[in-house]
Sequence to fold (67 residues):
Amino acid sequence: MDAANAAAAAKKEGFPSHAIIFLDVEKAAVCPLTITPIYALGSIELARTGYRAGVYCSGMTVDEATA
Fold:
């Protein structure tokens, strides 16, 4: 449902077909494995609507990740 909403919002805002819609994972040293099924399903839905999926994971040092 989130992917469909993101695609609808992108279309409404005038983003072209095949634009990349990013899932923003904040403050993660690495992208958590729990995101994998969510990302996979979202990617399929975005592709169905004509968009592409991307993931952004902000980098941080080990010290920051354990703080």
